[in-house]
Automatic annotation (TrEMBL):
Source organism: Circinella minor
InterPro entries according to UniProt: Tho2, THO_THOC2_C, THO_THOC2_N, THOC2_N
Protein name: THO complex subunit 2
Phylogenetic lineage: Eukaryota, Fungi, Fungi incertae sedis, Mucoromycota, Mucoromycotina
Family note: Belongs to the THOC2 family.
Cellular-component GO terms for this entry: THO complex part of transcription export complex
């Protein structure tokens, strides 16, 4: 087994054997011999191994052309030389013993080989030394052997043959040639006059003739062989078989395995003759003759190669020159366009570089001007062609192994390789390709041949008998020369005989691929072979179930052969189309894998691939530089032609250019119209790669979003291009949707939503309007599709809706694999994940949430726009499935099924008679969904306060169902009527400036739209009337009669109004209209006044704190619509009475409890118009306070939301002058001092709006309907001051001038407080020593406008509480209960402000918490005072007059007190400003420490303020006692 293992190892190394170089096989032979020589292995074991190797029963060495006998003899010779050298050293001791042991081993090896007949004595005598031969007993005497050897050599070298050269040579060779010719001259010629091949049975006669002539005339055998080779080459085309067989039987060839070195040398001399003497091209027969001799084993390739031109040194030089040329071409094509031009000349012009002229002596002319004759044929290339032409792949591979760039330097060799590959592939073609396809292509070939003959001969019937001519050029095989009536045939018919065959799909890579690899990437030169291979691969993919495991081999063929064939083809659209038919059968993952390897790996494999990439990139850039609006079509054609062969490179350059120059995106989308399906598929893959920001291996990905939350320019450009491409070319949008689904699984997918937004906008014309929707558009959204389409028609033509074909393809893509539903679910998942983000700032988080929100709204609009009712019903599952299987929230589930319910409601026909609906049960359209609601809602407590029927009705109805905007319909009708009139008026500008066809088309379109509108309006009215009857019948079941109004209203707002009012602007308007509709319906147990009070009083802080900018804008429209309605009622008493006191309207009851749900009430229970005015003032006041608090909070999100709300409210708020002045002051401060630019822009914009509406401002009294008091004359005031009163000290009257007012808060507190309260406060101040801050300290406080709102609030609370003390004591505790109610109301108002988890709030800071609480308390107190204390007009005037005559109890503060207070205020201001700046610089990391520090400072300031107040009271008390 050890010998067998050693033999197998040797056989495995045989393939690595290379002559004239060290290799593992040669080293194995040397090691085996050395081990036996040194005694490391037994001599018998070595002899067994050597004998088995030389015998070569498996033929391994013979197949690899290895002379194994020679290798072992050379090893013996090396050991003999080593032993002889050691013997001459005359060593002693152990060294001498080792030498003797080695000598004994070598003698045993020699004798053993001779005894086993492995080597003959002649082999030993020729190769071994005489000393070794004598020691081995192979010769009797060394001396006699050496003497005889010397004599023999002398005789061979120096002894001269004596014969008559002139007579013997001429006569002998003449006789030889004559006999050779006569030997076959007797054969009959064919009809074309050609001699037939010589019969093989005459070979022995020829050999006897040759031998006799050599012996008789003493001819040189080698010269005789040369003559025979000339005959062989001359008769090659018709008689090569005879001569090959003759050479095999001759004595010149010892064995076919070793060949004849003499024959190789003679052939080499023939090549040398043509190279040096004839200086002409060697005949093709010489190359084919050498190839046949090599293939038959008569000549060894490596014996002939040294004679072939160019020689090894020249071949290496040619290879080096080729590589340098390729590298230069790569560098030239990689550079810019300036690389083609030289340096600037003296005149500043440039000229294209000229080729360098040849140096002296390097030309092809001699000194006389005559051309030198040069041998320019590459013998190696021609011999390789000949070998391949006769089917000798093995020896051709040996040449390619030695000259690795031979095929690249001489591409014509590839034709010969592909000719063999076609034969190798034939069996697979017959086995796998269906018969009908094969017959079809055979028919095509026949038709092509008939067409050629018809063009050449005038028809197939005129074809005459052709003369068959044998040629050496295989390319002429089967061709005809119609003029000479010749048919050419290749002379060697057996070239297919020894070729391997593909008999299974496994052989595609094991047998076919090795042959194909010899030619490199030049399969484009063999279109027929490419077609055959494509048909096989396509058949295997189509019948994959019949051939398991064939797909991997098919993919390997595509990757290794078909893609390179496309790349190197010169824009062959047919090849690309056939390849796409194959790729269509693969999945997108498999195609993308192939594309990725094609683009990232293939163009780096060889230098030819690198040059191809450089040239293609240069061509693509050259086209891209010419792209313009007027030239886009031609540039598109050029790009399409280039993309037919190298789409990966072309589109890569194109997309990079689009990212750099975003204005190219629309043009390039139009230029892509000339691409094929394959190119579009590659473009989809590359766009997917570019969308990720990938820039190549080893480079960082591009940043998709800037620090300010704006998408990068390159991504916006790609998004526009992608949307325009899918729209204009109508290609499959699967790559984009697939990419979006993949990205939406990640939490950072917001940055990629711009791709989806642009895609939807371009294809469906659905733009993300955001907060830019006008009132007309919102009203149009409540109309029919005709009005809505016209109202939302995009301004830009690029955003117009795509064609029906494109929309249908989009619908198919969204329907496949539940793509649409996946996107919806993933978008919601992304929005939920953002709500849990803690690492983002408030602004960034809000921006991202808004982006996702707008995307969801846009996608929902897309689904309802492109899908009809039945398609949408099949696309979206039922509500229970959405809730249970996809875990979607109830609000989203109800929103998804709303179009289905709407369609059912519109199509529902009310039954009559006995089948009429039971009015006490829910409507049949809503009933299935109502039954599912308990399983859908996440919080079961919802249904404890509101019924499932109301929940379904609220969420399923739309604005179209409850509101008919007739004005929008009438405006649209009038618009189309005007268009029709303009088209019919022959004098109109439109008629005169357009062609009649355009006018007629416009008129037809306008008439069709007009007819549709005239049908839509009555249909809409009828639908709303039907819905109103439904609502009227069901309103009594909406709310349980056992639930109190406050929990009920809170539940409605929390679970219905708030979620839907921030969904979209249309939904926000629906919420407002539905709230008013519930009031008009007189819904049982529904307090409209409580709902309005909650919305307008307590809902605003929620929008300011918890909502994002987009949500705030949407919700503000809901709030504004109700606010505007209340403002209209406030202005007209009749409108208020009609809207609030109408028949059956119960919503404005002042007292409400559960028992009042029976709707039994009197008109006195309803809120009067005067009370409504006071409540409206409360809403205005709370709105003003909330907005002011937000503007002074320092939180960018709250400030931004405040301005967004103010812009919406500008027609009706502020309307009271005091509120407007406060807002103006706060806005001015932000506009001048705010560091954030976007806040400053909002502030300045709002100031401009305030200037426009300032003229409409009213005073508080006028707003409440109270007469303004007459101004008091100065004398009266002075008399009142100096008259006898209980006040012993002087007191100055309060100043009315605006410039003396310290701040807006104190001004409102003073003006809003009732006269009686101020009078009682002044009186108590005399009795109890209580003191209120004097009014003239406003001069000092005017310098502290920039101090914090918390300090102002603290002072207000203190002064207000002091002024209230006296009145409470005087009234005997009457006000204590009311103040307690006010405080509890303020706490409730503050406590009920909702907050969302993860959102920043003003309550996070203790300082801000105090500020919010104080403002809310003041608002509530003032509202309560206005509602409960305001006297009738007469008594009010009385009170105001008495109050103005009463002397003031306040004293002036000393100059020292004012100075001290000013210093303290300045110090506080500096500290707070420093604290704010430090907090901004430190950021969120030090926010908690800042709050703690600020709280401590606030406590210190409060204590200091209390001490100052106590000291002031003490001074006043002491002064009073002294007086």
């Amino acid at each position: 087994m050890e010998l067998q293992d050693e033999l197998e190892h040797a056989h495995s190394l045989a393939s690595s054997y290379v002559l004239l170089s060290s290799n593992p096989f040669r080293q194995l032979i040397s090691k085996a011999t050395s081990d036996a020589y040194y005694g490391r292995r037994t001599v018998d074991g070595f002899l067994d191994f050597m004998g088995a190797m030389i015998k070569d029963e498996a033929g391994v060495c013979r197949n690899h052309n290895i002379d194994i006998r020679l290798l072992f003899i050379n090893s013996f010779k090396s050991k003999d030389a080593n032993l002889e050298a050691l013997s001459e050293l005359k060593l002693e001791g152990d060294a001498a013993e080792k030498v003797e042991a080695r000598k004994a081993n070598l003698i045993a090896m020699v004798k053993g080989a001779a005894d086993r007949s492995i080597f003959t004595e002649a082999d030993y005598k020729i190769n071994l030394s005489s000393q070794l031969l004598e020691a081995a007993k192979l010769i009797p005497s060394k001396v006699m052997f050496d003497r005889r050897l010397v004599r023999l050599n002398t005789a061979m070298l120096y002894k001269q043959n004596k014969f008559n050269l002139f007579r013997e040579d001429n006569v002998g060779y003449t006789a030889l040639i004559n006999d050779l010719i006569v030997g076959s001259i007797d054969l009959p010629y064919d009809e074309n006059g050609q001699a037939p091949p010589t019969p093989l049975d005459r070979i022995d006669t020829f050999l006897e003739t040759v031998s006799s002539h050599i012996g008789i005339f003493h001819l040189d055998p080698n010269r005789v062989l040369d003559v025979l080779l000339d005959f062989f080459i001359k008769e090659l085309l018709r008689n090569f078989t005879f001569w090959i067989e003759l050479f095999k039987r001759s004595k010149w060839v010892e064995s076919p395995e070793r060949g004849s070195p003499i024959m190789a040398h003679l052939l080499g001399y023939k090549f040398e003759y043509y190279q040096k003497y004839e200086m002409t091209n060697s005949p093709s027969e010489l190359y084919y003759g050498c190839a046949l001799l090599i293939k038959c084993g008569l000549v060894r390739l490596y014996d002939l190669l040294p004679y072939l031109h160019p020689f090894d040194a020249n071949m290496d030089a040619a290879k080096k020159k080729y590589m340098e040329h390729m590298n230069k071409e790569i560098k030239t094509n990689t550079g810019g366009m300036l690389a083609q031009f030289g340096a600037l000349g003296e005149d500043g012009s440039t000229e294209r570089m000229e080729k360098p002229k040849a140096k002296d002596g390097d030309g092809d002319e001699d000194g006389d001007g005559k051309e030198k004759n040069r041998y320019n044929v590459n013998d190696i290339v021609e011999l390789t062609k000949a070998l391949l032409a006769i089917g000798d792949i093995y020896h051709a591979e040996l040449i390619f192994a030695k000259y690795d760039k031979l095929v690249d330097m001489h591409p014509e060799i590839a034709h010969y390789i592909y000719r063999l590959s076609d034969v190798v592939l034939q069996n697979a073609y017959e086995l796998y390709v269906p018969t009908d396809i094969k017959e079809r292509f055979i028919l095509f070939a026949q038709r092509a041949e008939e067409s050629r003959l018809k063009s050449e001969l005038g028809g197939t019937d005129k074809v005459t008998t052709m003369e068959h001519v044998l040629v050496t050029n295989y390319m002429k095989e089967g061709t005809l020369d119609s003029t000479k009536t010749k048919c050419f045939n290749f002379f060697y018919d057996d070239w297919k005989k020894d070729l391997p065959q593909c008999n299974s799909f496994q052989d595609l890579m094991d047998v076919f691929a090795p042959v194909m690899r010899l030619a490199g990437y030049k399969m484009y030169l063999a279109p027929n072979l490419t077609q055959k291979l494509m048909l096989i691969v396509r058949s295997l993919l189509e019948r994959e179930s019949e051939f398991p495991g064939s797909k991997s081999h098919s993919l390997a063929v595509i990757r290794e052969f078909l893609f390179p064939a496309v790349s190197f083809s010169s824009s062959n659209p047919g090849t690309m189309a056939m390849l796409w038919d194959i790729l269509e059968l693969l999945s997108f993952q498999e195609r993308c894998s192939l594309y990725g390897e094609w683009g990232n790996d293939f163009y780096k494999r060889t230098i030819e691939c690198k040059l191809l990439k450089a040239r293609t990139e240069r061509a693509a850039k050259s086209v891209m530089q010419r792209v313009s609006k007027n030239d886009v079509r031609q540039c598109g054609r050029d790009l399409g032609k280039l993309a037919n062969s190298n789409p990966m490179i072309i589109f890569n350059v194109m997309l990079d250019q689009i990212q750099s120059f975003d204005n190219m995106a629309p043009y390039m989308a139009d230029a892509c119209r000339y691409m094929g399906d394959f190119a579009y598929d590659v473009l989809g893959y590359l766009m997917t790669e570019k969308w990720t920001g990938y820039q190549g291996a080893g480079r960082m990905k591009k940043i998709k979003m800037k620090g300010d939350g704006i998408n990068a320019t390159w991504l916006r450009a790609l998004s526009v291009f992608s949307g325009m491409l899918y729209k204009k070319q109508g290609i499959d949008p699967t790559p984009l949707l697939r990419y979006m689904i993949f990205r939406l699984h990640n939490d950072d997918a917001v940055e990629d939503l711009i791709l989806f937004n642009e895609f939807v906008t371009k294809l469906c014309g659905i733009e993300i309007i955001g907060s830019a929707m006008t009132d007309d558009q919102i009203m149009a959204a409540a109309c029919s599709d005709t009005v809505r389409t016209e109202a939302f028609q995009p301004v830009s033509a690029d955003n117009r809706r795509a064609s029906k074909r494109v929309i249908n393809r989009l619908k198919e893509t969204l329907q496949a694999n539940d793509t649409a539903l996946q996107i919806i679910v993933l978008l919601y998942r992304l929005k939920e994940s953002l709500s849990r983000q803690t690492s983002l700032s408030t602004h960034s988080l809000g921006t991202q949430v808004d982006t996702v929100h707008q995307t969801i709204t846009q996608f929902m609009e897309l689904l309802t726009t492109i899908f009809d009712a039945n398609e949408y019903d099949a696309l979206i599952p039922d509500a229970l499935t959405l809730s249970k299987n996809y875990n979607l929230p109830s609000s989203l589930v109800i929103q998804l099924v709303r179009p289905k319910t709407r369609q059912s409601l519109q199509n529902y026909q009310e039954p009559t008679g006995e089948d009429a609906n039971n009015p006490d049960e829910p409507h049949p359209v809503f009933k299935p969904l109502i039954d599912q609601i308990p399983q859908i809602v996440s919080d079961d407590s919802i249904l404890n306060t509101i019924t499932a029927e109301f929940y379904v009705i609220f969420w399923q109805l739309s604005l179209y169902d409850i509101y008919v905007p007739e004005a929008s319909y009438q405006a649209a009708i009038k618009k189309h009527q005007d268009v029709i009139a303009a088209c019919r008026d022959t004098r109109s500008t439109f008629f005169l400036s357009n062609r009649p066809s355009v006018v007629n088309k416009t008129e037809r379109q306008a008439q069709a739209s007009l007819e549709a509108l005239q049908e839509d309006l009555p249909r809409h009215k009828a639908h709303v009337e039907k819905v109103m009857k439904l609502l009227q019948a069901s309103q009594a079941r909406w709310f349980p009669t056992t639930v109190d109004r406050l929990p009920l209203i809170s539940s409605i707002i929390q679970h219905c109004v708030l979620p839907r009012s921030i969904a979209s602007e249309t939904d926000a308007v629906f919420c407002a209209e539905f709230v008013l509709l519930m009031h008009r319906l007189g819904a049982r147990n529904f307090s409209s006044l409580t709902m309005l009070d909650k919305v307008l009083s307590e809902n605003l802080p929620t929008a300011l704190i918890a909502f994002t900018s987009y949500e705030t804008t949407i919700h503000a429209r809901f709030t504004y619509r109700i606010f505007a309605k209340m403002s209209e009622w406030h202005q007209q008493e009749q409108e208020y009475l009609a809207g609030a006191h109408g028949e059956g309207l119960i919503g404005f009851q002042k007292k409400w409890n559960v028992q009042s749900a029976s709707q039994e009430f009197t008109k006195e229970d309803l809120l009067s118009f005067q009370e409504f005015k006071r409540v409206t003032h409360k809403w205005h006041l709370k709105t003003s306070l909330a907005i002011e608090q937000a503007l002074s909070s320092g939180e960018p999100n709250m400030i931004r939301n405040a301005f967004l709300i103010l812009k919406q409210f500008i027609p009706h708020f502020p309307i009271i002058r005091e509120h407007g002045q406060v807002l103006t002051k706060a806005t001015n401060e932000l506009a001048s001092r705010e560091r954030m630019d976007h806040i400053k822009v909002l502030a300045r914009s709002y100031l401009g709006l305030l200037e426009k509406v300032k003229s409409r401002w009213k005073t508080k009294n006028k707003f409440l309907g109270i007469e303004e008091p007459e101004p008091e004359p100065p004398a009266r005031t002075e008399r009142a001051t100096n008259s006898g009163t209980n006040t012993p000290a002087k007191s100055s009257s309060p100043r009315r001038d605006d410039k003396h007012e310290s701040s807006s808060e104190r001004k409102r507190t003073r003006e809003d407080a009732p006269s009686s309260q101020r009078s009682s406060g002044d009186n108590d101040k005399n009795n109890n020593g209580g003191s209120k801050r004097p009014r003239h300290d406003n001069e000092d406080r005017s310098k502290r406008e920039s101090s914090s709102s918390r300090h102002r609030s603290t002072q207000e609370v203190s002064s207000t509480s002091l002024s209230r003390e006296g009145s409470q004591r005087e009234s005997g505790g009457r006000e204590s209960g009311r103040e307690s109610a006010e405080r509890s109301s303020a706490r409730e108002s503050t406590r009920e402000t909702p907050r969302e988890p993860g959102r920043s709030s003003a309550r996070d800071s203790p300082r801000e918490t105090t500020r919010v609480r104080d403002h809310v308390r003041d608002a509530v107190r003032e509202a309560v005072r206005d509602t409960s204390r305001l006297p009738p007009k007469e008594s009010t005037r009385e009170s105001r007059g008495s109050n103005s005559n009463a002397p003031s109890r306040k004293r002036e503060r000393t100059e020292e007190d004012r100075e001290r207070e000013r210093e303290r205020t300045d110090k506080r201001h500096r500290e707070e400003r420093s604290s704010r700046e430090e907090r901004r610089e430190r950021g969120d990391r030090g926010e908690r420490n800042d709050r703690d520090r600020e709280r401590d400072r606030g406590r210190d300031r409060d204590r200091e303020h209390d001490r100052d107040r106590d000291r002031q009271r003490g001074r006043h008390s002491h002064s009073h006692r002294r007086r």
